[in-house]
Structure formats: C-alpha cells, structure tokens
Amino acid sequence: MEKCPKSHVPFENDPSAAPRSVHGTPKRRFSILQRKVLTPNDFSSLDALAERILAFERHYETVARPFQWKFTRHDLRKLIERLERRDPVNLLAA
C-alpha cells in the first residue's frame, strides 16, 4: 500500500487487489444517478440536491434489478474489426 502524496491516508493502487465488479460499481451507480437525477442541473440549494439524491436512492432500492449484460467479447471483437475497416489510422489514435 502506498500513501497519497498530499495526505497520510494509505490507498490501494493495485487494480488486481479488488474484484472487477468493485471497480465498476461506483461508475455504474454514478452514471445512473447522473442520467436520472442530476440532469438537468436545476437545484436551488445543496439541501435540495441532497434531498433529490436521497429520494432517488429510496426509490431505486425498490425497483433496481441486476444488469443483464449482452455485449460479449465476441461482439467487442466484431465492433473493433468493423471500426478498423472504416478508419484504421484514427482508431489507433483514440
């Protein structure tokens, strides 16, 4: 474990130290929150923002279902091949 350069709090910088799902979960949750709660950004105060987030959290806990991933490695490989045929130079630059 290393220490954050600006503090004395240790942090883990090894991605293999935690399961993949742990790394992706906050990103997925924030993505849902941003799409369904934070847009448009029209909050009159931080308290209004906090209340909307908490209300959404209570609602989402009752309706949330596990994601059913349908995009496979094979699908990704086909997509990359199709993009490479379209514009191989700019694909590498991205």
Can you give a write-up of this model?
The chain is mostly helical. The chain has a two-stranded antiparallel ribbon with strand order 1-2. It is 61% helix and 4% strand. The chain is elongated, with a radius of gyration of 20 Å. The chain has one domain (2-68).
How many structural domains can be distinguished in the coordinates? 1
Largest sheet: 2 strands, antiparallel
Tell me how many strands there are.
Answer: 2
Structural class call reads mainly alpha
Strand content: under 5%
- Give the helices and strands as they follow along the chain: EEHHHH
What count of helical segments does DSSP give? Answer: 4
Q: What is the radius of gyration?
A: 20 Å
User: Which overall shape is indicated by the principal axes computed on the Cα atoms?
Assistant: elongated
Percent of residues in helices comes to: 55-70%
Ranges where pLDDT stays below 50 over 5 or more residues in a row are 6-14
Strand order of the biggest β-sheet: 1-2
Give the overall average pLDDT: 76
**What separation lies between the terminal Cα atoms?**
32 Å
